[in-house]
Amino acid sequence: MTPPDTSFTPSANIAQLKESATIAVSQRAKALRAAGRQIIDLGAGEPDFDTPRVIRQAAQQAIDNGATRYTATEGILPLRTAIAAHATARRQRIIAADTITPAEVVVSTGSKQSLYNACFSLFGPADEVLIPTPSWTSYYEMVALARATAVPVHGCPSRGFKVTPAELAAHVSARTRGLILNSPVNPTGSVYSREEFRDLLACAREHNLWVISDEIYRRISYGAEAVSSLDVAESRDRLVVVDGVAKAYAMTGWRIGWTISTAPLAKAMTALQSHTTFSPASVSQSAALAALTGGPAIDATVTAMVAEFHTRRDAAMALLATEPKIRVNPPDGAFYLFIEAPGAGRIPDAGSVFAKRLLEECDVAVVPGAAFFTPDWIRISYAAELTQVELAVRRIIDAYRSA
Ligand code: PLP
């Protein structure tokens, strides 16, 4: 009997799609663990804390109260109202007359879907989209899935890899339609200051660009509060703010994110979502509502979680400072450290070589910088227990010294 033919030719839609390198690393780490190795996983992009109890209880209650059916595609009104109220409170600190309405909010199955909704609705063939780089991989793939062209704008390591308006402007062409901003930045942990953010938005406005501002790590910052585009944008005409509950409330698995944009764009994204995933999970929406309306009790939990990240960051940075040859980007937010690999500039794809060695020989999983279009670097996540972070960083230093 001839064996079944299980081969397939990918369609043109996905022919160029690359697997997420972050996921590839964590799968390899899992495989090694299953084989009995004690791998310290610093590859993960999710808080290692439990979702706060009040939120879990609200979700259980919601199930018992019958929140088990489809909801409106764009999410339940109480959740959109809470999101709009939070955003309005921020916005009105600078523009008193600007009220964000629930009609401008679309809730989806994670901020990843929100970003995809925005990219797919705004960009198309012949459009170019500027992406400050190093950057999260998925922006590139989402822009490509929309058949637009991603244009990397590389930030200088000496400025924390942050881009300037002049660097953006140098990449603007007649085809440039959008800019994807992210602060605090994954993978560098850098945070744009109020002035820096304001100037980038002003530059985008000057060139008539749509700005998608991914603010998923905004609550996780260690200096002054990280700025939202809502705090500095002169106008919201061409602005899409993307946020969600995943990182701030340790709710990665609940899959709730949202966009705050204009009513016409929100309508278009709702139509798109109605044909892909439809309404986000009803129980998760109730949980997200509890997170946003939980008041000081929830805020205290978030503050405690951020304080723990802060302690780990300081501990890791103090250890790394013992080896002056190691170049590390000092982070002000998110939960990542970006470290230059040994042999950078000399060995091709030095970050991947180092990451492979760390995993296979030192039992430490990290993500190679190639995943973020900076192949000389590696990213470590300190979303792991302090003792594990310290142990892993010591191994990284030893591996660096013996490279
Ligand atoms: N944006 C950035 C920069 C991220 O790093 C991630 C997840 O790692 C996301 C968005 C997606 O978050 P969510 O879990 O809400 O889809």
What does this structure look like?
The chain has 403 residues and is of the alpha/beta class. The chain folds into two domains: 21-50 and 298-401, Alpha-Beta Complex (Aspartate Aminotransferase, domain 1); 66-294, Aspartate Aminotransferase, domain 2. The protein has 13 helices and 13 strands. The chain has helices spanning 21-34, 53-64, 77-91, 111-122, 137-145, 165-170, 194-206, 229-232, 263-276, 282-293, 295-320, 350-362, 386-401, and strands spanning 40-41, 105-108, 128-133, 149-154, 176-182, 210-214, 239-244, 257-260, 328-329, 336-340, 364-365, 367-368, 377-381. The strands form three sheets. Strands 2-8-7-6-5-3-4 form a seven-stranded mixed β-sheet, with helices on both faces. The longest helix has 26 residues, at 295-320. The model has no long low-confidence stretch (mean pLDDT 96). Bound molecules: pyridoxal-5'-phosphate (PLP). Pyridoxal-5'-phosphate is lined by residues 45, 110-112, 136, 182, 186, 214, 216, 244, 246, 252, 257.
Q: SSE string, helix = H, strand = E? A: HEHHEHEHEHEHEHEEHHHEEHEEEH
Backbone CA Rg: 21 Å
**Quick one: CATH superfamily of the largest domain?**
Type I PLP-dependent aspartate aminotransferase-like (Major domain)
Spans with pLDDT under 50 lasting ≥5 residues?
Answer: none
Q: Note the gap between the termini.
A: 53 Å
| Structural class label | alpha/beta
Largest sheet: 7 strands, mixed
The CATH class of the largest domain is: Alpha Beta
